[in-house]
Design goal:
Elements lengths: L1 H22 L18 H9 L6 E7 L2 E6 L6 H9 L5 H11 L1 E2 L5 E4 L7 E9 L2 E10 L9
Antiparallel strand pairs: 1-2, 3-4, 4-5, 5-6
Length: 151
């Protein structure tokens, strides 16, 4: 009797572990990802910023344990600045997230993404630090200039 009870318990544990592995998404899966693949529409942020102050946080980005925020801002910094000066489309949120999460420090208090070629060319730049906060996004934009470098 004891042998059968032990087998029953082991079988139940194995079933529970297998079921939880199928149900709980892994960190790399699309289900576990926080931002949506399509990005955030300008209309939704615009509506939010119309009814909140310039210091209102509309997006949060992460780099390891560090947290960076995008606030509604003004004509010179934040989301309103990015939308007016550089444009906002559904890919902008993803580009900002990628630059902050895995980009290289760019010497301007922010992070940039680069092409994977030789010489490496900067594709996208973020600049961090606003009047509202040290870890706030000042601006973000596609870099159009090409710096000549040798490999």
């Amino acid at each position: 009797m004891r042998l059968n009870a032990s087998r029953t318990i082991k079988a139940a544990l194995v079933t529970a572990v297998a079921t939880s592995a199928l149900v709980i998404p892994t960190a790399g899966s699309a289900t576990a990802a926080t931002p949506s693949a399509a990005g955030v529409a300008a209309d939704s942020i615009d509506a939010t910023c119309r009814s909140h102050s310039r210091n209102y946080v509309v997006r949060t980005y992460y780099r390891g344990p560090g947290k960076y925020t995008l606030r509604c801002g003004t004509a010179t910094w934040g989301w309103k600045h990015i939308k007016a000066r550089h444009g906002w489309d559904r890919t902008m949120d993803r580009k900002i997230s990628a630059a902050i999460w895995s980009g290289k420090p760019n010497g301007r208090g922010g992070f940039s993404t680069y092409t994977n070629q030789c010489p490496s060319v900067e594709k996208f730049r973020t600049i961090i630090g606003t009047p509202a906060g040290r870890y706030d996004l000042l601006t973000a934009y596609k870099v159009n200039t090409v710096a000549a470098a040798k490999c």
